[in-house]
Amino acid sequence: MAEANKGPLDGLRVIEMAGIGPAPFCAMLLADLGADVLRIERPDAAGRGVRLPPRLDLLQRNKRSVALDLKSSAGQAAMDELVGRADVLLEGFRPGVMEKLGLAPDRCLARNPRLVYGRMTGWGQDGPLAPTAGHDLNYLALAGILHGIGQADGPPTIPYNVVGDFGGGALYLALGVLAGVLEARRSGLGQVVDAAIVDGVASLLSLELALRAAGGSATGRGRGLLNGGAPSYNVYETLDGRYLSVAPLEDRFYAELLQRLGPQAAGLPARDDPAAWPALQEGLARIFRSRTQAEWCARFEGSDACVAPVLDIDQSMAHPHNVARQTYVRADGIEQASPAPRFSRTPATLRRGPPQPGADTVQALLDWGLAAAQVAALAQGAAPRGDSERGDHERGDPERGDPNRVDPERGDPERGNPERGDPERGDPERGNPERGNPERGDPKRGGSALGDSERGDAGAGAGRSSS
To answer: In b/e form, how buried is each residue of 263-288, taking b as 16+ CB within 10 angstroms?
Structure first.
């Protein structure tokens, strides 16, 4: 991935405290849009979650990784300097963990009054459940949304964690910190953004709450207008065992659906009476089971009947619409989603792949203005411990090179010196520590993490979710 236009957030400096789930995803969104995100890792890069080889951990793309020992005075001093230079700090630990690390909001804001301090949890910074563990599923359950997902008279259906972790969590954190940055530029003062997944999910329910107040939404699974109760907003099986999403809510779109269905639709009951919905749904189900998914897609091609095939991820990547828009791209050998949303003048780009933990310690700290001597001393003690089979980042591996044992005055042979090669890809003769080993994860080198009781990550009972 080559450096190019850095996007609309170019120049925004963000510190991300390494964790899992929504906070790293929020940081990825900001990095995709051009922010300079430094992910602060522990020197031992302890495992905190589902193990992924670092080069495959897409939530870390477009970021740089810095290893700091925050239990040491040198590490704390460096962190203080980074805080003083940052626009945003993101953390996703349970309440109290940052305070134990000496990075409480009041201390950071005293160091940098303009800092926007984003806190991502499941339950929030206060309330009876604030100190307890939880995951995406728990937050959906307590917010009232899980109850409404699934078939009528069946148990709640477990959705992907995109609803809570990433929808109600990461996106609200991103919105909050960017709003905080705009306000700080006007007032000169930063603030704390308390982003709780349970709050964000409740906010996502606003339309449903409006329908409920108007008497237009039946309670219970599979009984409401938008959760499976309406025949014209549902999923139907086709002849080949695949599925179609059918959603012509508006009258004109529903009329086109009926027209495209042909003579088979003649005997269907009217949809205006909810009492007739079960019979209408059964009639539509019978019609859709008469043809394959591909046959129905051909029939509805180019129409406004609001019909689309239910695709798995591989099928979605190959669909002509997604191919035309490059919704998914292949970068560094990995299929991934393109940065979103799209910008006309300052487009977001994939500038770099996920880094090896600590791989950018030297260059990133120098870029943020720390003194060369201080950086060199930190690099000696903060380089992540290596794996003898993959190269040792603490002692240096002559076959791979050690990005944290360089002379800062001469440049970084792995990340590249502007006069010596590619700043992104390193020297192909010496190996690229950012690429990792796709065949095996190394918890000491930093896969994504299951919880860490010392750091308060979700897998060990943090008050937020894992992905």
So the answer is: eeeeebbebeeeeebeebbebbeebb
Q: What is the domain partition of the chain in residue ranges?
A: 1-227+331-467, 243-309
Spatial distance between the Cα atoms of 166 and 43, rounded to a whole number of angstroms:
28
Amino acid sitting at position 447: G
Q: How far is CA 438 from the centre of its chain?
A: 21
Query: Which fold is adopted by the domain 243-309?
Result: formyl-coa transferase, domain 3 (3.30.1540)
CB 213 within 8 A of CB 219: no
Q: pLDDT (tens digit, 9 = 90+) per residue, 217-242?
A: 666 888 888 999 999 999 999 999 99
- β-sheet bridge partners, residue 237: 243
Q: Is the pTM of this model over 0.90?
A: no
Please write the tens of the pLDDT for every residue from 30-51.
999 999 999 999 887 555 556 7
Q: How far apart are CA 171 and CA 164, in angstroms?
A: 10
Residue 135 among the catalytic residues: yes
SS3 call for 234 = strand
Q: Which of 16, 17, 56, 47 is nearest to 459 (CA)?
A: 47
* Options 36, 87, 136, 165, the catalytic residue: 165
Q: How far is 461 from 452, CA to CA, in rounded Å?
A: 8
- The reply to whether 165 belongs to the active site is yes
Whether 346 and 1 have beta carbons less than 8 Å apart is answered as: no
Please pick, among 87, 135, 136, 199, the residue that the annotation labels catalytic.
Answer: 135
CATH number assigned to the domain covering 1-227+331-467 = 3.40.50.10540
Tokens of 127: 């309330």
The 10 Å Cβ neighbour count of residue 325 is 11
